Amino acid sequence: MRAAEVFLERFGSSPTVRSFAPGRIEFIGNHVDYNGGPVLGAAIDRGVEAAASIGTNGRVRLYSAHFGDVVEADLDRLAPLKGSAAWANYPLGVAWALAKHGCSVANGFNMVFDSDLPAGAGLSSSAAIELATATALNGLFDLKIERQDMARWCREAENEFAGMPCGILDQGTSAFGQAGRLVLIDCRNETFGTVPLPEALRFWIFNTGKKHALLDSLYATRRRECEEAFAVLRTFRPDAECLVDIQPEEVVLRRDELRPELYRRAMHIVNETQRVRSVSRALEKDDINAVGRLLVESHASSRDLFENSCAELDFLVERLVNLPEVYGARLTGGGFGGAVMAMTTARFSVESASPVMASYAKRFGIEPAVFSARTGDGSHVLAR
Ligand code: ADP
Ligand code: MG
Predict the structure, then answer these.
(1) Closest protein CA for atom 9 of ligand 1
(2) Residue nearest to atom 23 of ligand 1 (CA)
(3) What pLDDT, in 10s, does the model give residues 224-239?
């Protein structure tokens, strides 16, 4: 990536700090994070690079190699932007969240972003740009922010400044990723760990390039439905702190108390929570076939119960899982478009996928973008 070069071109001087933050695969735990359950994600070897220098007079100047003009803002008057400058709400939100937590970037800063991660594909380019910003500012102003706070504050930036009510999966995985490992997040306590992955596995991403026009509001609707379902169910289980504390049998027992769609949402969340735990156990036993089956079950549950899939994603998953090199496949991320991830043997190649691509093109008139993704490390400062 060329963040430093672009920085020099735009701002006429060299950056003092460069940082990188990865995108992520949601491995399993679809919409479980904001319901307080465990989730598994993997940082990938693609992401956002930031190059930065300290500014003057509290002025922030931001430029992205992919998103148009320089955006300028004053630190003492930070407010979300609309229109073509709205991409800057992610880095501005990080500056806002840092200030809220007493971390001063008072001089302002200049920052340039470059990325090799498709935006809006469900691979969390938004968290990558946030973590790249926070990591660069941490280095630039020697803020000594703990990794855990970095993830939390970046999530606050996205929730409260950019206005997207996402859970902690995206920022937690981008912050805590490690090559060769999955990030396991306990979203209730916001604690982060990792678990090893067998070396022979590979990940492939199939980006449909489709994004539902109402993506953000659909996400918020699902979130609200989960809250509504929990409000009903907790009247029978007053000790429950969040939806994932309810057992699947209990949801079944209370089916008549819930509107049909709320029943489906709740069933998805409580079953998906169990699947995350089952995947962790299967990984401990190196039972990759079981992991693959759970990934496919997860997709079916997102499709039928949570109803956040779409024809393109379903088509890809259905065809991919019939290939001998594929252990499992599922939609990855918030859904309503975006990408499918497939967990495969090392033998899988673009050629392996070509019959699927051809039939997809026949059905939908365009081929999805496909690339392999290795697991990678979480956000870090790059050599200066
Ligand atoms: P996802 O996180 O799945 O990629 P989001 O809709 O949450 O999808 O985030 C995508 C948004 O993040 C883009 O619309 C843009 O505002 C911002 N973004 C992503 N990558 C970049 C980039 N390289 N430069 C500037 N903004 C970016
Ligand atoms: Mg995002």
Answers:
(1) 126
(2) 115
(3) 999 999 999 999 999 9
